[in-house]
């Protein structure tokens, strides 16, 4: 308990001490240290003094006692009081001796002495016992002996007063010294205060000033070069560091403010208690808020109810798990404007990882969303016709097939391709083409039910999905309805245009349930409809697939034929209808198949055209024909002004290397450019008239001639023919073959010849087989003819022979 009280007192004293100013504590410590040191020193000194004085007195008593006891032996034996007293009186020499007493052996007083200063202190009549002797003086008993026989006792008592007086004097002296030392300590402590406490005070004042003024450029003054000076240096360095950091913090804060002010993004900060702490102007603009201190609750109230749950969940993740969040939110602003925003936010920590709040950025994505909607519309709908596009069609096809499988009903897929759309586009322009497409789209949409999907999947290609089909008859009825709808003329740019479509139809699940297969089926059926003469519909059949397989087999075989040099060239002469000279030859390829014999080009050129193999084949034909005919010309077997005509396929015609290739062939085969003529079908040229003109100009720049092949079948307009840089026009065999039976064809043939002459073109009639045809052509001034009447296509050897014979006949003036 006492210990507890003691320790409590001690701790409260310590607390009191610790709360004192440093200066006071320094003074206290100095005084306590000085006081304790002096006290201890004085105590030690006094104790030593006392001990030494006591020892001196005792020694002195011993000496006196020994001397006197020795001297008084006889006097005591004889009880000579006077002598005894005389001996005792020697004690007078020592002022400190209080009394001296001599006792006989029977312990009675024999003689006594006392100092004058202690008259009242007499010797007791009997020898006092040591334990009963009550005196604060020093005293001692000495036995008096004679022949070692005790005969009495000497008692001497010395006063302590002198000792005490000396002690007292010393104490007074010590106190004076202590007080002086205290004063000195106080003085030194004050000095120490100046040395230690003042710089500290100054540091503290500087710090207070910095804190009050918030000016971190203030520095403490260094007055000492000691440890305190070092402390001031360190303090100033610390201030410099703080100042630097403060400056950089200010700069970064300024940057942040400027950035946020200029930011196209709305920036906000929320404190850990979820109060909106800061928002920039852009944030206010996006939210249409003018309030200086917007409230987070107000912001939450702007959120579209459809997004509220999402936002709450994300917000909880942010504030509870400190997870970063990013989400798109719809807001209704105070001015009722509907806004889409993109919000990103994450927790903000200080350097020590203490949560400062949440920082976020908001951008207005309303325009982006609108564009997205527009893009989605564009992504799924054809902008011209408003019909579903290929992508939406494919989605619907997948869904419809699944629906058909589920419901057990049938679905029909129609693939429609407009007949001759390209011609309208090329002749009347793209605006007209657009009008046509829109009208066709309308008619198609009006022909089917609302549940059915009409799509425009390419330029002039459409698809129709007919769902819930009960019988093939229903599909047939729809296809017929479409053909009927298309048969009415469409008014475009003041002209009535007649258009038609070719329709391929496939059914699910009967034909397939695979959407890709269905697409392929419908496509095949559509091509079949085209082949059947257009403006009709065809249902898919397995035979169509077989023709595809056959197609693939041919493709493979063509590759082998190229590798194994199975192609050969035949030449069909062209004859002048004025003098029956051979004006040239048309090169016609043949395939010498090892198993199937000679295969004519109609059976492999279309496949080679589709697969692109025609480029290699065509290049080979061009080079080989030029080489062979050049050789015949050089040998004078072929007339020097005769031409070799080479057919160019559509793919070859659009090959960007064509002109270069021609130049190269002319060079390596050494055939004069005027001896080479390229035949390009009318339909190839009409695919893209402007491009065709450009390519033909390039071809013409090589010096070779161009002939339009199969003229009359490609629906070309006279205005284009006028612009084509061509030399020859070949009237298609289909017009010649019905001469003289078909008056129309005859009239067309005559008109074409006349028109070609007006355009300064040479006219060649194809497929001349009969004399009547020849006569009619001659009558109409057709320049040249080509056909079985003159010669079938000939091998090189046969041509050689033919030319030799013709030359001979000519020299014999033979005429047909
Ligand atoms: N791109 C290339 N096409 C070529 C090449 N070689 C030929 N062809 C084209 O193939 C088509 C068929 O040609 P082909 O079987 O050789 O038939 C030609 C003649 O044999 C045939 N002809 C000629 N005269 C008559 C005739 O009096 N009666 C009749 N029934 N047929 C006749 O006509 C074909 C030539 O026609 P054209 O080319 O229109 O002048 C054919 O389109 C060839 O062009 C080639 O190397 N590359």
Automatic annotation (TrEMBL):
The keyword Magnesium does not apply. Residues 325-377 form the PAC domain. Residues 409-542 form the GGDEF domain. InterPro entries: Biofilm_reg_signaling, CHASE8, EAL_dom, EAL_sf, GGDEF_dom, HAMP_dom, Nucleotide_cyclase, PAC. The chain crosses the membrane at residues 26-46, 167-189. Coiled coil: none annotated. It is an enzyme of class 3 (hydrolase). One of its GO terms (molecular function) is cyclic-guanylate-specific phosphodiesterase activity. Residues 252-323 form the PAS domain. CDD domains: EAL, GGDEF, PAS. It catalyses: 3',3'-c-di-GMP + H2O = 5'-phosphoguanylyl(3'->5')guanosine + H(+). One of its GO terms (biological process) is cellular response to nitric oxide. Residues 551-807 form the EAL domain. One of its GO terms (cellular component) is membrane. Gene3D superfamilies: 3.30.70.270, 6.10.340.10, EAL domain, PAS domain. Its cofactor is Mg(2+). Keywords: c-di-GMP, Membrane, Transmembrane, Transmembrane helix. Its EC number is 3.1.4.52. PANTHER family: BIOFILM ARCHITECTURE MAINTENANCE PROTEIN MBAA, DIGUANYLATE CYCLASE DGCP. This is cyclic-guanylate-specific phosphodiesterase. It comes from Thalassolituus maritimus.
